[in-house]
Amino acid sequence: MASKIRIKKQSFSWINPKLEIRNTGKYGKGFFATENIKKGEIIHIFKGEKISLKEGLKRVLSGKENIDDIFQIGKKTYIDLDYSSRIFNHSCDPNAGIRKKDEMFALENIKKGEEVVYDYSATVAPTKWSMKCKCGSKNCRKILGDISTIPQNQLKKYRSVGSLQNYMVDVLKKIRRDRKGNVILPEYELAAIKKLNQKVKIKI
Ligand SMILES: C[S@@+](CC[C@H](N)C(=O)[O-])C[C@H]1O[C@@H](n2cnc3c(N)ncnc32)[C@H](O)[C@@H]1O
Ligand SMILES: [Zn+2]
């Protein structure tokens, strides 16, 4: 009888041969296309260790990980990103989007030499995360926030081309706002912010 071969499940970094890491000259390194990439083509699958919100918090609070390197794929499920998945930068006018749980695809034809960038905000559920943006695009939002801060017309575009993660489609249906239009954060998110505030100051 043939013996079973056990393959240990582990995350590994696969780098698309059409990508190369280069210095952006504005915000560290980034991934650039070494060949033309066609609209709709899969560019990358985000990989890493699958962890809970609780474990993600633990890693950020202990200083083991940076908050940007924990990528959300479900309501309370994250990936502690592997090396290659940490290289992509943000743009407010992205040429790549994320769909399903973790699949990056080309939103348009990307020419050889162009940097591959996605909209970080589209992958962040309502929270108080923010980041200064230096993308330099005409419609740069300057200060990035979670998905609820993306202009409605842009969000509509992401939806129409399928550029939203599955969990995010669900999150968007459940977003509640107060009378002033501010997003009401879920309880578990507030608890996480409270913990994070002991480490990094997040205004609420
Ligand atoms: C996941 S890393 C991307 C790789 C990073 N450029 C590097 O050299 O390691 C995310 C970090 O890159 C920088 N970054 C990415 N996109 C940016 C943007 N549009 N404007 C300013 N900084 C950006 C920020 O420092 C952010 O915390
Ligand atoms: Zn920008």
Characterise this structure.
This protein is α+β, with helices and mostly antiparallel strands and 204 residues long. The strands form six sheets. A three-stranded antiparallel β-sheet has the order 3-9-8, with no helix packed on it. It has a three-stranded antiparallel β-sheet with strand order 4-6-5. A two-stranded antiparallel sheet has the order 1-2. Strand 1 and strand 2 form a beta hairpin. It is globular, with a radius of gyration of 18 Å. The mean pLDDT is 87. The protein binds S-adenosylmethionine (SAM) and zinc ion. The site of S-adenosylmethionine has 13 residues, from strand 2 and strand 7. The site of zinc ion (ZN) has 6 residues, from loops.
Count the DSSP helices: 4
The helix/strand class is alpha+beta
Could you tell me how far the N terminus lies from the C terminus, measured between alpha carbons in angstroms? Answer: 62 Å
Name the beta content range.
15-25%
Tell me how many strands there are.
14
Bound molecules: S-adenosylmethionine, zinc ion
Strand order of the largest sheet: 3-9-8
Q: What helical percentage do the residues reach?
A: 10-25%
Instruction: Give the CATH H-level superfamily.
Output: SET domain
Average predicted local confidence, pLDDT: 87
General form: globular
User: Radius of gyration from the CA trace?
Assistant: 18 Å
| Main sheet specs | 3 strands, antiparallel
Number of domains: 1
Task: Give a brief description.
By secondary structure, the chain is of the alpha+beta class.
